[in-house]
Amino acid sequence: RPRVLSGIQPTAGSFHLGNYLGAVRQWVALQESHDAFYMVVDLHAITVPQDPKDLRANTRLAVAQLLAAGLDPERCTLFVQSHVPEHAQLGWIMNCLTGFGEASRMTQFKDKSAKQGADRATVGLFTYPVLQVADILLYQADQVPVGEDQRQHIELTRDLAERFNGRFGQTFTIPAPYILKETAKIFDLQDPAVKMSKSASTPKGLVNLLDDPKVTAKKVRSAVTDTDTVIRFDAEKKPGVSNLLSIYSTLTGTAVTDLEQRYEGKGYGALKTDLAEVMVEFVTPFRTRTQEYLDDPETLDALLAKGAEKARTVAAETLAQTYDRMGLLPAK
Ligand code: AQP
Description:
Oligomer: single chain
GO molecular function: tryptophan-tRNA ligase activity
EC number: 6.1.1.2
Bound molecules: adenosine-5'-tetraphosphate
Enzyme class: ligase
Strand content: 5-15%
Subcellular location: Cytoplasm
Binding site for ATP: 9-11, 18-19, 147-149, 186, 195-199
């Protein structure tokens, strides 16, 4: 079975709709057909300041949400990044292979550091994409299911894997991004020109899966569309409506063309009211399931311990091979 690897940050508490549709939903599907490794990337989260208590709670909360979304620890390897020390170790090796200029070209760093101010952005935030390279290469992943915003980081991963293989001999699998066109980028409900994001979206534009379903329904009903009235998918001319159609289509498994037909001659109000209902039906059981997993932290922690053990077997082998190829003297 081909292997997939992906991760999600435990930062904001609730996952948002972009995280779910852009990434987590694919993770659930891929565990059936692939050898799947999924992790909560707490080492990435600390590239910006975190309150220790919140970080710990949010890490469990992220795991609970992944399980609620449908990840099954019997079908995939689910773990927390910091439980597998090889990530930080291979991260250092990859830092030593990355050009400073190359790292400086990462647009996510540019955006995030611009927001924080150059003096406050950490070196960790700067090298975060390089740690991500290590995350992927450790598992010899063939594919990486992510949203469009991560494409550049997968490109960097490919470049570094090729560089290492070229210099030291075949060691790493060259991974490919796994990005579904329809959900590659879910947009802010209030500003459909920008991606839905926990740090950049306004509260009204951001759908948090763990919000009160009534709040979510209201956000969907007041989503920004356009002054036209026709319900048609046109990402350029009608980004707001197109975003709603993508969300609707993915959550219900109905083709966008079928939705266009269903809403022919109807107003935006009808579309939004129905989508609000679809959303409520989706988030209500999701919230309940998440809470159930959270109520049993011992089981959660035991499951993570098992996941880390499975992950370490693979990660340790790759790291040992990497050290050896590079000429690091083995400890006797
Ligand atoms: N709007 C989105 N559409 C599609 N996919 C998205 N992802 C995030 N936003 C969208 C995908 O979610 C996965 C996990 O993301 P992350 O935990 O790495 O968080 P992020 O990318 O940092 O999420 P945000 O909300 O965009 O955070 P900020 O505001 O801090 O930048 C990834 O696969 C990502 O592609």
